[in-house]
TrEMBL record:
Alphabetically ordered keywords of this record: Methyltransferase, Transferase
Protein name (record): Secreted protein
PANTHER family documented for this protein: RHAMNOSYL O-METHYLTRANSFERASE
GO biological process annotation, one example: methylation
Organism the protein comes from: Streptomyces viridochromogenes
InterPro entries: SAM-dependent_MTases_sf
Source taxon at top rank: Bacteria
GO molecular function annotations of the record: methyltransferase activity
GO CC entries: plasma membrane
Length: 211
């Protein structure tokens, strides 16, 4: 039986701004519930407004661990003004740049999950460099250029504990369905021999560290 969020948590997830469809969210929740048994932190790259963070936070709460979520909160390339995924309500008008941090904090507050999350504001490679410990789960959902996806893989995959999970979002084997950078790091993870595939749900791939 798959672990499922309560109707309240699911409603909070659905109400949050963001990009993760419910079906993939449920797969992430189930995977995270298994990974949380290791008792280690669950880390996300790509907080945005906290939609997927809600799920990791609720799993962490139940397991007595913590969700860590990393973002510079200035948005990815495709979220900038004039681009397909831009939302003008997440622009800091004083600075003239995107700032998803205030919306993220409201999302977590509304969901009652603030206590279970450590939010790190910064660039993923810099945070990875100063992050020492092992992780029960790494969820890569940050920048979608090859540079960003590669940095996320190289920075965070080595920190997944044995038996822990590496979850990658926006994996599209067919170029017509989307950018190829997440797909390329997914292939790299499998080819490394360090990870085996656990599940595929639309564009969400769950891999486990072997050995
Ligand atoms: N997980 C979110 C969606 C994340 S969108 C959800 O469920 O809705 C991708 C996010 O990655 C954006 O907020 C962007 O600011 C962040 N991002 C992109 N490149 C980054 C980098 N190098 N370091 C930190 N965050 C980054
Ligand atoms: Mg995504």
């Amino acid at each position: 039986m798959a672990a499922e969020p309560t109707p309240e948590i699911l409603a909070a997830f659905e109400a949050a701004k963001g990009f993760m469809p419910v079906v993939e969210g449920l797969a992430l929740y189930d995977a995270a519930t298994g990974a949380a048994k290791l008792g280690l932190p669950l880390l996300e790259v790509g907080t945005y407004c906290g939609r997927s963070t809600i799920l990791l936070a609720d799993v962490a709460r139940q397991a007595g661990t913590v969700a860590v979520t990393v973002d510079h909160h200035r948005g990815s390339e495709e979220q900038q003004p004039g681009w397909e995924y831009h939302d003008e309500t997440v622009v800091d008008s004083e600075v003239g740049r995107m700032d998803t941090l205030p919306t993220f904090r409201r999302t977590l507050h509304k969901a009652g999950l603030e206590e279970h999350v450590v939010a790190v504001v910064g660039r993923s490679p810099q945070v990875a460099k100063v992050w020492g410990g092992q992780l029960g789960l790494v969820f890569i959902d940050g920048g979608h250029t090859d540079e960003h996806a590669t940095n996320d893989y190289e920075g965070w995959a080595p920190k997944v504990a044995p038996g822990g999970l590496l979850v990658i979002h926006d994996v599209f084997p067919n170029p017509e369905d989307g950018g190829q950078a997440p797909y390329r790091i997914y292939l790299r993870a499998l080819e490394s021999g360090d990870f085996e595939e656990v599940s595929v749900t639309d564009s969400l791939r769950v891999l486990r560290r072997v050995g």
